Amino acid sequence: MVRFENVIKQYENQQALTGVTFQAIRGELLFFTGASGAGKSTLLKLIYRAIEPDGGSIWVNGIDTVSMRAGHVPGLRRTIGVVFQDFRLLSGRTIYDNVALALRIRGMAERALKTQVMEVLKMVGLRHKSDCWPETLSGGEQQRAVIARAIVAEPVLLLADEPTGNLDPDTAAGVMRIFKDINSRGTTVIIATHNRDLYTGTGRKVLKLADGKIETETTG
Amino acid sequence: MSGLRSALAGIWKEKWINLLSVLSMGVGLFILLVALFAVYNLNYFASKLQDRFSMTVYLDDGISQQGLASLETAIKASQAVGTISYISKAAALQELKKDMKDSAYLFEGLDGNPLPASIEVRFKRGSLKSEAVQGLASQIKEMQGVQDVEYGAKFLEGIERIITGARSAGVAFLAALLAGVLFVCYSTVKILFYRRKDEVETLGLLGAGGWFIRAPFLVEGALLGLAGGLLACLAAYGVFGGFFLGGFASSVPVLRYMLFPSVIFFMPVPAGLFIGFTGALIALGRIKI
Ligand SMILES: Nc1ncnc2c1ncn2[C@@H]1O[C@H](COP(=O)(O)OP(=O)(O)O)[C@@H](O)[C@H]1O
Ligand SMILES: [Mg+2]
After folding, report:
1. Chain A residue with minimal CA distance to B213?
2. What ipTM describes this predicted complex?
3. B229 neighbors B270 (Cβ within 8 angstroms)
4. How far apart are the first and last CA of chain B?
5. What are phi and psi of A127, to 5 degrees?
6. Distance from C-alpha of B161 to C-alpha of B26, rounded to nearest angstrom
7. Does pLDDT of B1 surpass 60?
8. Alpha-carbon A216 to chain mean position
9. Distance, CA A47 to ligand 1 centroid (Å)?
10. What is the value of pTM for the model shown?
11. Which residues line ligand 1 (CB under 6 A)?
């Protein structure tokens, strides 16, 4: 599903990834962990091609995304759902419209998408907030709205960057249940988190990043 | 559909910038309209002047009926010639006498008719070119039975200068105005685009294609242009309808003869729409998404 081979990423004067090799197979749910600044977000951004690597090879859905033509990038991104660390909710659009956007981008008709949007909003406990503006929601509510937008189109790959960073433990557990649920329906899920509680006891693969490399691979 | 909706939302969100650009486009389109009227009327006057132009072919007294017929056929063969009419010696004298009624004594001692018969040649509109007329004149001059050919060379050159002058000045001015209006829309959309750079970036990360992202901006540009066009149209209606046609025009002789075809009145609406869309298209064209 996702394969990195010796991937290097360098920012102006900062070596973020110094050679990362890993593989996430179809249907897997795995975690990336590591201290703040370890390179978790960088790694996820490379997968949905928000940034390009300075070395190494990346395959997503069997496609070599390093040599991929720019015109094919939107198509790649439409197979992926992303829970952005910085949310990226669009102001000036209601929560409903923010979530519906993911389906509109994929060309779904207005009539068809309504039930799907409301269903997902209910799943994350935001049904009553569908007509609200993003700014009026709490941090935790915004985070759940972002999760709703990421999963509403049932992507084959779900990337979540600190998806529980703003949530209390109970809500965080609820969000994890949603991810597991999605994963059990066949979506490959990759979660980047520094929250140990999220993966301990899950029995899933946990890759720890340090110094721009995968330091250890354990089971949570 | 969602393109239209987010375009309307976008217009409202940035209403002051949008109002400003609608006003500038409206003013620009209004000036364009006035310029179009001016060019249209200059052209119209010039073509009316053209109608007055004729060439006179003076004939030899001894020309035969047959010679006249073949001469007429030869003149008519020219592409530029519209109508020709034969004026006999008698008719010419009649005409002269009528013109000089007060000096009838001049004709008293007249023995015979000194005036030559002639053919008056009129040209088709648009075929009236100095060179063509000159060429035809010298050609006719060589023909059998022709005494002389006369036409107002200076008059013709004058008309030509007016027409080409009005056309090129008009075209240049209209092009400059169009470019100005286009630029207003271009920069408005560009500004709006950069103000929504975050949103555009997010749309891209969510997998939106270039046209999905551009659509609301294109709709927005087209709507702005349309609004500017309607504004110009309304202003024109107010000015021409209320001010010119109601009283004021009749006291200014030139205005009484001017034409105000309604097609030109409505021109700013489609023109605004087209310019707005094109301006937006150019503004977004080079943007990397
Ligand atoms: N756009 C950027 N420009 C420069 N340096 C960056 C940029 N993004 C991240 N970095 C640096 O790269 C390193 C890895 O960052 P990041 O991937 O965000 O880590 P994490 O998500 O694990 O906290 C950090 O040292 C960070 O300062
Ligand atoms: Mg991060």
Report:
1. A105
2. 0.94
3. yes
4. 21
5. -55, -40
6. 33
7. no
8. 22
9. 15
10. 0.76
11. A 11-12, 14, 16, 34, 36-42
